[in-house]
Every structure is written in C-alpha cells, then in structure tokens.
Amino acid sequence: MEKEENILGTEKIGKLIRKFSIPCIISLLVNSLYNIVDQIFIGWGVGYLGNGATNIVFPLTMICLAFSLMFGDGTSAYLSLKLGEKKKDEAEKGVGNGITLSAIVAVFLCVLMLIFLPQLLNVFGCTDALRDYAMGYGRIIAIGLPFMMLGTTLNSIIRADGSPQYSMKSMVIGAILNVILDPIFIFVLKMGVEGAAIATVISQIVTFALNMLYIKKFKSITLQKETFKPKFSVGKKIVALGISSFITQMSFVFVVAVENNLLAKYGTESKYGSEIPITVLGIVMKISQILNSIIVGLAAGTQPILGYNYGARKFQRVKSALKTVLGISIMISTIAFILFQTIPDKLIAIFGSGDETYMEFACLGFRVYLLLCICNGVQIPSGIFFQAIGKSIKSAILSLSRQVLFLVPAMLILSSIFGIMGILSAGPVADGLAFVLATTFLVQEVRRLDKGTAKSQALIDDTSTDNQLNKHIIITISREYGSGGRYVGRLIADKLGIKLYDKEFITKVAEETGLSEEYIETNEQKRNTLSGLNNGYYFGLNDADELFIKEAELIKKVADKESCVIIGRCSDFILKDRENVISVFVYSDMKDKIKRATEIYGLDKEKAEKEIKRIDKLRANHYKYYTEKQWDDHSNYDMCINSDILGVEKVADLICEMVKEKEAILA
Predict the structure, then answer these.
(1) Rounded Cα–Cα distance for residues 263 and 415 (Å)
(2) CA-CA distance, 128 to 574, in Å (whole number)?
(3) Is the model's pLDDT at 540 over the cut of 50?
(4) What pLDDT sits at residue 594?
(5) CB of 367 within 8 A of CB of 340?
(6) For the whole model, what pTM was predicted?
(7) DSSP 587
(8) Is 604 helix (H, G, I), strand (E, B) or coil?
(9) All residues at 6 or more sequence positions from 296 whose CB lies less than 8 Å from its CB, including other chains
(10) 113 alpha carbon, distance to own chain's centre
(11) Torsions phi, psi of 125, nearest 5?
(12) Model confidence pLDDT, tens digit, residues 183-242
C-alpha cells in the first residue's frame, strides 16, 4: 500500500492515467458493445422493426441491471469495509447475503416480466408494429435474467476480492461468444429476434458459470452454506452501500421511458411514424454510449490519482491530472462530433438498411440530438473529479444533471412546441446546460486550488501521561456538538494520567495515507444524504469508507497498547466486545450548547443552533451508516449524562469514579 500511494503522488501523470484508465475503459466498452452487437445483427437479419423492438425491451433489462449492480457494488463495498475492520466472518456473511439477495430478486423479476410482459412493454412506448417482435425477444431475455443478474453481481464482488482481470475476462468471453452466436441463430437458423435473444442468454449463462466457478477461489474469504442464509441487517447494509448504482441506472430507465413514449406520441404526427424514431434514437443513444464509456473509463481511472493528490495537498498534480483528462476527453468527443455530423448515414448503415424516410431521420438524429456531444468531454470528467475529491453534493448534481435535471424537462417542453424535432433538440439543450453547470463548478474549484486554501494545522493532543490506573481500561466519549464532551475527555485523561486520543487520529491517518490533515478532518465522521452517491460502479470505496477503515485500525491498535480516552469515531462500537471498555455519551440542552458554541467555538449566535443541528445530524448519519445503530440511543452506552446538570468538571469526576469501579470488577 505504501508503494502504491507513493506512486500516486510521484509517478508521471500520463503513465498513471494509462495504468488505471485502460482496464476501466475496456470493461465499460464490453458492456456497451454487448447490446450494440445484437442490434447490428438484428438490423441486417430482421430489419429496423426488430431493432425498435429491442429498444423497447432494453429498459426492462436496465431495471434488472440496476438491481444486480446495487447488490454487486453494495456487497463489494461491504466486503472491503469488513475486511478493513478485520471481521472476516462478517465479510463472508455479506458476500453470501449479496449473492442470495441477487438470486431472489432475479427470480422474482424473471417471473414478473414473463407474466406482465405486454403491460411492461406498453409502459416503455411499444407500438402495434413492434409488439410481436418485442414479445418474442422479451420472453427469452426474461428467462435469462437470473443468469445475467447473478453474473453481474458476481463480477463486482470478484473485482473487490482483488481479481479484476478474472472479472474482465469472464465479461469479454461472454461478449465474444455473443458475437459468434448472433449470426448463427439469426442468419443460419433463421430465428430472427428470438435467435438474437437466445444468443444473448447463452452468452450470459457462460459468464455466470465462469463467475460461479470463482466462488471456490476467493482470496480473502471462504463461503460456507450458512453464509448464504439471508439476514435482514446485512441485506439492509448492502442495499444502502449499493443504492447509488441503482439510482444511476434507474435514472437512465426513466429517461428512456419518457423518451420512447414521447417518440411514439409525436412520431405519429410526423411523416416518420412512431417506429422509425423509436428505433433510430435508441441506436443513436447506444452509439453515443460508446463515446461516454471511453470518457467515463478515462475519468474513473484517474479518480484515485486526483483523490490522493488532492488529499495530499499536491494541487499542481491535481490540476495537471485534471487538465490531461479534460484534454483527452474533449479530443475524443470532438472526433465523435465530426463523425456524427459528417457520416451519420454510414453509422446508421452498420445497423442495417432502411428506406429514404428512415435514413433521413437517422441523419437528423445524429446531427441534432448529438450536436453538442463535445460538451460530454467536460461534463462527465467533472462529475468524477468532484467525486474523487470528496465533494459528493456537486458530484451528484453533475452526475444527474444531464439526464434527469435537464434532458427530461427539455423533452417535455420542446416536444409540446416543436413535436418530434423538439425531442431531438432536447439533446443539445441538455448537453449545453450540463456543460455550463460543470464549467462553473470547475472554475470555482480550480480557483480554490490556485489559492491553496487547504492549510495544515497542528492537531496533535500532546497530553502528558502519568498513568494512575492499575488495570488496562479504555474510555470512549461520544458527544453532541457543544456539549463539552471533548473537554470532559481531556479532564478524565489528565485526572487518570492517561493519553487522550482525538484529533491525533487525524495526524496518524495523514502519516499513513499521505492525505492532508485538513482533508481528513473535513471528511471524517460526517455523512450527508448524498454521500452514498460517491459509491459508484468501478469507483470502489468512497473517501469516508477508507477513512473509517483506517481509523478503526488505529483505534484497535491504541486500545491494545495502553489505557486511554478516545473521542468519537464510533469507538464505542469498534471496541464493543472488550470488557475493559467504558462507553460514555455526553449530551446537553440546546441553550447550553449554543452558549458553549458561541463562547468557546466562536460561532455566530444567530446561526449556532442551525450549525449544531447540522453537525449532530452528520455525526448521527455517520454512526448509523457504520454501526446500524442510532447514535443517541442510550442503550448503546454504559453511561449517558447531561454535562450541564453537574458541570463538566464534576461529570469528569463521576466518570473517573466509574473507572475505579471498573478496575475493581476486573481485579
């Protein structure tokens, strides 16, 4: 780990980007090409109506993919967290539960899709001309859903186990097999769209089988039958960790549903009809997805480089990496723009032929809908950049802005005015607005980097020690903001002659990771409602998870070494199984907290209450996320006390008396 961190901070940016980005790009391209291959062969073997039918069924597979990624990415994060906490048994239960949940939901969705397929197709804009094709394709795809979902879930887990090459190979083998089988079933066996579906399902079964074989090869855990038994608390945690992947995929499903229905509605009012716009725009979006996959893979591979150097306050390296990624991304999107504008007829011809009307709309689709695709070269890397530096709110806004915040409203408004051309025009409108938003955020952040706003602070609590205890005892102090809990902890440490550990953890984590102390202090023990969106497909754990794992290791080390007082950081939970630990929760009335916060911490009196509530909510979210318990639940602690009833000095005396009683019990 030490070597890798040094590389991130010292190796040439270009070399690092090549090392980390190429595997991401390959994996994403394989996923994108999987669906496009079907459409190419269907277009030549069946015609554009067959392609239109697959575009109607595609959102249903995306819903299933959303669930499988939620379980896969959630389980991967759970595995990494529990291994980081040295809790191998819990890690095994997490993996077993993740696989079981994916299997249960996969079977449920398979049955649901088989029973209600006609109604589901209507939701996604199916027309009478497309219905027979969509039904034939959809029924077979539904049968293969359990294999697709479990294969995808296992892919994420295998990567987290440290075998990304195995994961990538199983995906590539499935994709290559699909390319081989498609023409056999479509052209040789004359099975049409059903043949394409069978080829896809067989390929998914092969990927599933390869990933199932890996279960016996796990490096970090060993799975037994009992680990697959569903446990609600574990499943709940997995879902929470993977919810961001689910939201990302479902936002795309929502966009396609709205788009297909608008195309069906306004297409009938145009000379193109409903089927041509649904078919063409589905192809246009999938081709643009190839462009996006390259840019996402490039930016995702750069994420650890950006995050590490930002945390280490090497802002010139951050700017250099950002500049390189933006430059390459804009170059790629510019090449794509030239192709979309100059040879759209050649691109659409890859997916089969059509009449003059079909080709006319295809050219419009590429030239109008993707008019500002160059903007993707800025918007996509910007979202991942803010994710890398731990700014989850901006990252979430940028990630959702193009598809949900801008594209859907633009389609609804412009289609009501300009009909079918309004839907096409919504593409560049959304791209342009997302670009302006991303550029604004980027300019502001780069200015902060130029000013070097992060300033190191001396955060070590150098409490002198003259241990008066006869036994090895640990006191953990959890506290509301402004309750004086930290001062209580210092008084206890002074009275007992033992070490106080609070912000010293920040310094120790900084020493071990290379991250700046200010960066760690900003990101630790705080979790807002959008933090979950920092966990994304291919991006691994977010900053808060990494910090929690590292601090948990340090807490256990100091607890093993000496008697001490530990402030916050879920230390009561991390050390809960030790009999030599006393856990305390210090709280106070709001008026007393406001008084202390204004007098000691210098908060503005008018804003103090709001700030206190905000910080306490972040602490509560952090505690709930990692412990699955309520932070202010008194049953979690050995003692809960209002610091203003007796005053902080007497509260400290009372806790010291409790420590003496504990010594007697341990004697």
Answers:
(1) 9
(2) 60
(3) no
(4) 87
(5) yes
(6) 0.71
(7) E
(8) coil
(9) 24, 28, 380, 384, 538
(10) 27
(11) 85, 25
(12) 999 999 999 999 999 999 999 999 999 999 999 888 888 888 889 999 998 998 888 878
